[in-house]
Design a protein that fits this description.
The structure holds 2 protein chains of 2 kinds. By secondary structure, chain A is an all-alpha fold. Chain A has 4 helices and no strands. In chain B, helix 2 packs across helix 12 (241-266), helix 3 runs antiparallel to helix 5 (134-144) and helix 3 (79-95) packs parallel to helix 12. Classes of the chains: A mainly alpha, B mainly alpha.
């Protein structure tokens, strides 16, 4: 059973090795000249007045919460979709109810304005 | 031991093809395609002894240039995270290819050989799981750089990527229902006859999946996260040298993965229209079984990669044809159009399957 994942493991080791190797190579080969002006964040030549480590719009947080809700519902659909032909009309009606509930949730979120990005 | 060697050979084939051919070559293809579409001569400067070879030396020149650049970490950046995020971007991009079959099953020397690195029964869920790890790479890259533009880029990227992941999860449910499997090898094998191809059974699914996949990869027209002209490359703004190159490499590898997925799910995987494997084998019946199978295998591998290259070209064409969408338009497309449409697609697919049964 775990034998299946042998290829994934080999690929993972190879990919990570290559990525780490490239990082080492670029930090070894490149020149190293640092002076205060150069180390500033890329802006218009001045030190930025506003630090980026601040609070940001709650919209992004809300999107993440919605993502979790809907993505978990997508996961519920997968086993059903695989067995769909065996379950027949019974399975279809069951999932219809589930999707209707999901749709009501989407409409609610939509009407609440959580998907508005102006 | 023999299994181990065969698996290693397959891994090396995919890895070599992706890192050695596609990743460098696509940087050149992208430039050349944009030059052709914008009616200018592009990517023709790098040459060896006066031979420029239509700019084919550019990837080599790029690699040397990137290696010779300083590995720059700005003041105030989180050094560990800043170094880690290119790895988190590249590794998932390479890893997703593990479950995509690049050929069918062949009998060579009495052994059944499946041309896929790992024939997992979870198949597509593995791809979803691994490819969503790349979101961490972009978010960490933007946050750790301590730069306002980077943070903006990574916020946009994270919201966009997770929004389209929801829609992408739903678009493929129709495909699972039609073929009754998550395993890409089985989905590929089920498309032997031309009219069983995914594009005929799930036409809407194809267009929605392609849109979601391109948005997931943050390429034009969904590239506000990078937006060169407004937030100066966004989340990888503070990167230099090969670290910068690694973000591009991840993007190009994802193009290849998306093309391979589209080919496998919707365009008959390794099958040739109207010419079945049995027909090819019967034409080769004067050879012994192993030799005939090897020839069949080579034909299938080349057919698969030809299809993949076509979809790579298709994505490049989209990238240079459409203008960038506005951010609210992108979110609207994901949540208000693609998500309801994919739910409707599931219901319609279900009704049609049950009526035909």
């Amino acid at each position: 059973m775990l034998n299946q994942y042998l290829g994934v493991l080999i690929l993972l080791v190879l990919a990570t090795g290559t990525a780490v190797g490239m990082l080492t190579l670029t930090s070894l080969l490149g020149p190293k000249k640092s002076f205060p002006d150069k180390m500033e964040p890329f802006e218009c030549g001045k030190k930025p007045i506003v630090s980026p480590r601040q609070r940001f719009s709650v919209k992004f947080y809300l999107t993440a919460v919605l993502f979790i809700l809907f993505d978990i519902e997508a996961v519920f659909l997968y086993p059903w979709a695989i067995l769909f032909k065996k379950l027949g009309w019974f399975g279809f009606v069951e999932m219809l109810l589930f999707i209707v509930v999901l749709g009501i949730g989407l409409v609610y979120v939509w009407k609440k304005g959580a998907l508005k990005w102006e | 031991m023999e299994d181990f060697l065969i698996t290693t050979a397959k891994v090396l084939f995919i890895f070599g093809l992706n890192m050695g051919v596609f990743a460098p070559l696509l940087t050149w293809v992208e430039r050349k395609q944009s030059a052709l579409m914008q009616d200018r001569i592009g990517a023709n400067r790098a040459d060896i002894l006066g031979f420029s070879m239509i700019g084919l030396f550019h990837p080599i020149a790029d690699a040397i240039k990137m290696l010779a650049k300083e590995d720059f970490i700005p003041e105030g950046a989180n050094k560990i995270m800043h170094t880690l995020s290119p790895i988190i971007c590249v590794v998932p991009a390479l890893l997703t290819f593990a479950v995509i079959p690049f050929g069918g099953e062949y009998v060579i020397g009495g052994k059944h050989i499946k041309l896929v690195i790992a024939d997992l029964d979870v198949g597509l869920i593995f791809i979803f799981a691994i490819s969503s790890l790349a979101t961490y790479g972009t978010v960490i890259a933007g946050w750790s750089s301590n730069n306002n533009w980077s943070l903006l880029g990574s916020l946009r990227a994270s919201a966009q990527m997770i929004s389209y992941e929801v829609a992408m999860g739903f678009t493929l449910v129709g495909v699972f229902m039609v073929y009754g499997s998550l395993q890409l090898t089985q989905i590929g094998a089920a498309q032997e006859s031309f009219f069983r191809w995914g594009i005929f059974l799930q036409p809407l699914g194809f267009f929605m999946f392609l849109a979601c996949a391109i948005a997931e990869n943050k390429r034009a027209p969904f590239d506000v996260a990078e937006g060169e002209s407004e937030i100066i490359a966004g989340y990888f703004l503070e990167y230099s040298g090969l670290k910068f190159g690694m973000f591009y490499m991840a993007e190009f590898l994802e193009i290849v993965t998306i093309s391979a997925m589209v080919t496998t799910l919707f365009f008959g995987a390794w099958h040739i229209p109207f010419i079945s494997s049995a027909l090819i084998l019967s034409m080769l019946s004067f050879l012994n079984e192993t030799l005939a199978n090897i020839i069949l295998m080579l034909i299938h591998i080349s057919v698969f990669w030809v299809k993949v290259i076509f979809f790579i070209w298709f994505q490049m064409t989209i990238r240079w044809t459409l203008p960038r969408f506005r951010y609210d338009q992108i979110m609207k497309l994901g949540w208000k159009i693609l998500l309801p449409l994919s739910l409707a697609n599931i219901l319609v697919t279900g009704i049609v399957i049950l009526i035909l049964q």
